[in-house]
Design goal:
about 725 residues, alpha+beta, 8-stranded mixed β-sheet, 7-stranded antiparallel β-sheet, 19 helices, about 25% strand, L-ascorbic acid binding, dioxygenase, procollagen-lysine 5-dioxygenase activity
Length: about 725
């Protein structure tokens, strides 16, 4: 596992030298890069492009950042060359370079390499080695394991050789390559030169056993830590106490290098944050509406999803003109058909075109997602924006920001509120499933903000057309029996396409649809546990937090009777609908105190008992603590004993049923009474009178709570309803 750590100023000589070397290099090289390989007294880097993809671009960025002069040997080759052809190119190049025998040349692969320090550091480490050729070391003997015993034993460090990186004097390297017997690969050639004492001594050939210069990650990810010194990220080999410069994700460690690559080469640091985020960014600010890129928005409702209404509203609120968008919708859920169809009908005319695949067309998710790509290309899109119903876009600038980020595929980071569950994975296991990366928690908690190269994204992402219409790169949501997102990401990884997740700003969040049941009316009422944030956004009164704060004075319409806002009117409306839909009302005969009382229904009867108890614990108890001085069940901010409310019920007053309730005491320490509808509008009359004080409250506020003592002092009655129906919720707390 690669760890991460921020170190103090006293970080050791190597790190301090790095900072000095960078300053020197910036002056000497001016931060320029020469891909033509102009020769001078400085260091020259030779590489093979092989497949020119994202990893190759990352390599070039790291060399450019530190001012390396780079020459790519297989530029112009139309097809990927085999190992033998690569060796021939290398021999030819070193023959030309040998005219300057003392010139220092570094060769490395490009696709799996990141430079983390400037050229002067390479020269320093090479000269310190006293070698004429210094080759990177490996923990494995390959490709011919029979040669293992031929390698000299070492007291400390990696014993074997890896030709993916070496540095030396041009003249000596040329002699070695030209005088060596014919081999099929560079690895075998250098291996045979090294294992023989005579040739090893002849060319002064050494291995970088302690990773002072080259760090091969294969088999060594547990040896290294990502660290920071001020504004610089670097890799520390904790096994040998070295700071390697050339970091290579060989073997199956390419994804580890992707993680490190989000930091190294001045990509991210704790002081400046994400510096690579600004690479190749574009701006839409000066573009007129008709000049904005055309995109296809693919909306996928693949499972029953809570708070879908808010999901669709937030799509409507995106600050990107629908006149520049085509709409593709796939709804696989019958439960959502009415809402989704209504939404498509309402907004469809504002888009350039619309394609809606309904649930009864029985199109599988895999094929629907691939069809969205086809639809995008058919309509000359420049981007495809995919969003699933679990992804709530709270930031209306999301589309603009993702386009401006200018990456082939980028996802806005989203998490389930209060959880570590997100729409990306920082790492994966060998069989392609979730693993936690060393920086995952810092990213999901937004302790680190930036743009992160990750192996898996889902739920919401933007893809560029350059990715879609390239046959070699085109994504597909089908691979064996994998879920569509798993298939997409594995296919992209196999093609070497980087996937990014951005948390530069807050974009939105995920809802949890795993256990969402649709068998009831107003099913979101039950979502307090699984989706508390969304539940509160829909139902919690916007002034609740202000009311419960210590500095707020709460209204007291009668002595020791307090008013405070708890619910929005939507909550009260849906509760009335739900209880009336349930339709079973008791006449109070099950409770002698309420014999001949108004009809009532226990909250647990409709399955809301646990939800209501959570409301009492998390929302009502803080108010009771504030109002009733000394009645404190908290230790600090921790509720040590939740309120105990056995009797929680909705009451219905109607003139032709039971219009009032006679004076009574409640069997409670305190009682809450929540008004669910409006006096003077939904009913006439009604209210509550406290007998001892001859104080009546008849102007109830919808969603507000009346909180009062239950026993002894607050004898009270329900006043007569003369017209309409009055609904309240009552809880007897701590009987």
């Amino acid at each position: 596992m690669v760890l991460t750590r921020t170190v103090s100023a006293g970080v050791g000589l190597l790190v301090l030298l790095t900072l000095v070397w960078e300053a020197v290099t910036a002056q000497d090289n001016g931060g320029t890069q020469d891909n033509g390989g102009t020769q001078d007294k400085g260091l020259l880097v030779l590489t093979m492009r092989r497949k020119a993809g994202d990893s190759y671009k990352r390599f070039l960025r790291s060399t450019s950042i530190f001012g390396y002069k780079v020459k790519v040997l297989d530029v112009g080759e139309k097809e990927e060359l085999d190992e033998k052809k690569h060796l021939e190119l290398l021999k030819k190049e070193f023959k030309a370079l040998s005219q300057d025998k003392e010139k220092i040349v570094l060769f490395t692969e490009s696709g799996d390499v990141v430079f983390s320090a400037p050229p002067v550091r390479v020269i320093e480490e090479f000269e310190s080695s006293a070698a004429d050729i210094l080759v990177s070391a490996d923990g494995f003997c390959w490709p011919d394991q029979t040669l293992e015993s031929s390698f000299p034993r070492v007291e400390r460090g990696k014993r074997f050789l890896n030709s993916g990186g070496f540095v030396g004097r041009a003249g000596t390297i040329h002699r070695m390559l030209s005088e060596a017997p014919e081999e099929t690969s560079l690895q075998l050639l250098i291996t045979h030169m090294y294992v023989k004492d005579t040739t090893r001594d002849k060319y002064n050939l050494k291995l970088d056993h302690l990773s002072t210069l080259f760090q091969n990650l294969n088999g060594a990810t547990g040896d290294v830590e990502l660290r920071f010194a001020g504004k610089e990220a670097y890799l520390q080999n904790t096994l040998y106490n070295t700071v390697p410069v050339v970091v290579r994700g060989n073997g199956h460690t390419d994804l580890v290098l992707n993680t490190l690559g989000s930091y190294l080469a001045r990509s991210w640091n704790p002081e400046d944050g994400c510096r690579s985020c600004w690479d190749e960014m574009i701006s839409l600010d000066e573009k007129k509406e008709e000049e904005l890129p055309r995109l296809t928005m693919g909306v996928f409702v693949e499972k029953a999803t809570p708070f879908l209404e808010e999901f669709l509203d937030k799509i409507d609120n995106l600050l990107y003109p629908s006149s520049r968008m085509d709409l593709f919708v796939h709804n696989a859920v019958e439960y959502h058909e009415e809402m989704v169809s209504g939404w498509v009908k309402a907004v469809g005319e504002t888009f350039i075109s619309v394609k809606y695949i309904k649930h009864d067309e029985n199109i599988k998710e895999w094929h629907a997602r691939n069809a969205a790509i086809d639809y995008c290309l058919e309509h000359e899109c420049q981007y495809l924006f995919v969003i699933d119903s679990e992804a709530q876009l709270d930031n209306p600038f999301t589309l603009k920001l993702l386009i401006e980020q200018n990456r082939e595929i980028v996802a806005p980071m989203m998490i389930r509120p209060y959880k570590a569950w997100s729409n990306f994975w920082g790492a994966i296991t060998n069989d392609g499933f979730y693993a936690r990366s060393m920086d995952y928690m810092e990213i999901v908690q937004s302790q680190r903000r930036g743009l992160w190269n990750v192996p898996y994204i889902s739920s919401c992402y933007l893809m560029q057309r350059s990715l879609l219409d390239n046959d070699k790169k085109r994504p597909s949501f089908i691979k064996n029996l994998l879920d569509p997102d798993m298939a997409l990401c594995e296919n992209l990884r196999e093609k070497g396409i980087f996937m990014y997740v951005s948390n530069r700003v807050d974009f939105g969040h995920l809802v949890n649809a795993d256990k969402f049941e649709t068998r009831r009316l107003n099913n979101e009422l039950w979502q307090l546990f699984d989706n508390r944030w969304d539940w509160e956004q829909r139902y919690l009164h916007p002034n609740y937090t202000h009311a419960v704060s210590e500095n707020t004075t709460n209204e007291m319409p009668c002595p020791d009777v307090y008013w405070f806002p708890l619910f929005k009117e939507r909550y009260t409306k849906e509760m009335i609908e739900t209880f009336e839909d349930y339709g079973i009302w008791s006449d109070g005969s099950n409770n002698p105190r309420y014999k001949d009382g108004p009809p009532q229904t226990e909250l647990h009867s409709v399955g809301l008992g646990a939800v209501w108890q959570e409301i009492m614990t998390k929302l009502v108890a803080p108010m009771a603590k504030k109002i009733f001085t000394g009645y404190d069940r908290y230790v600090g901010f921790i509720l040590k004993k939740p309120p105990r409310a056995i009797m929680n019920f909705m009451v219905r007053y109607k003139p032709d049923e039971q219009p009032f309730l006679r004076p009574h005491h409640d069997t409670s320490t305190y009682t809450i009474n929540v008004a669910l509808n409006k006096p003077g509008v939904d009913y006439q009359g009604g209210g509550c009178r406290f007998v001892r004080y001859n104080c009546s409250i008849t102007n109830s506020r919808v969603g507000w709570v009346l909180m009062h003592p239950g026993r002894l002092t607050h004898l009270h009655e329900g006043l007569r309803v003369t017209q309409g129906t009055r609904y309240i919720i009552v809880s007897f707390v701590d009987p």
